[in-house]
Amino acid sequence: MIRTSSIRRRTRTAVGAAGLALAAAALTACGTQPAHQGAAAVVGGQRISIAAVDARVAEVRDGVAAAQGQNGGAHNERAGLARKTVSDLVLDRVIAQALTDHGLSVTDTEIADGRSADAKALGGEAQLARELLLRQAVPSGGIDAFYRQQLGIQKLAAAQGEDPRTDAGNAAIRKALVAAGTELDIQVNPRYGHWDVQQIGLADTVDPWLPQNTNPA
């Protein structure tokens, strides 16, 4: 479910809405390889590579371990983080498409202003980075992208004259994201689940990722 409560409630910061990851660095061109080969997901014809997902998971786990003096968690925790990472990366693309569909954008200045305000409220950039890492699994390299997504969600509601914190605002956001997700024809590697367009998130799946050869040897 897309949540439109403010980040102040979720991370004690001042922007608003759902979690984000740095999708731009993860997207790769399909090239001459099959679209599904080595992909965690294919969104609008663009691949999110398994390697990019694994790299982000490792970055988050290492950051959390350094911050808390832990070993990074067990296998099942890594699996859950990988699934969350894929979900965040796909959602980032869905929000970007929804913004494009509505003629909207989030500027670098808006991102910098939101980030600066939250860092000031929390006592500095280091504390902001720690909050986002521990509460939202956002590594330091993904903070700007996180704010781009949050501000984008807010703008989708505002474009309809709605407050994102209200039921009407939530409905406006969901409508835009469902339309964008349908348009993008999202396919997810079943090891992570499948993208439920209506729920705007990952759900369990048993569908095969690649066609299986059923011919006898």
TrEMBL record:
Query: What is the recorded name of this protein?
Result: SurA N-terminal domain-containing protein
Check the record and name the SUPFAM superfamilies matching this protein.
Triger factor/SurA peptide-binding domain-like
Q: Which InterPro entries match?
A: Trigger_fact/SurA_dom_sf
Q: Which Gene3D superfamilies match?
A: Porin chaperone SurA, peptide-binding domain
Q: Which UniProt keywords apply?
A: Signal
Q: Where does the UniProt annotation place the signal sequence?
A: 1-28
Annotated source species? Kitasatospora terrestris
List, alphabetically, the Pfam families matched. Answer: SurA_N_2 (PF13623)
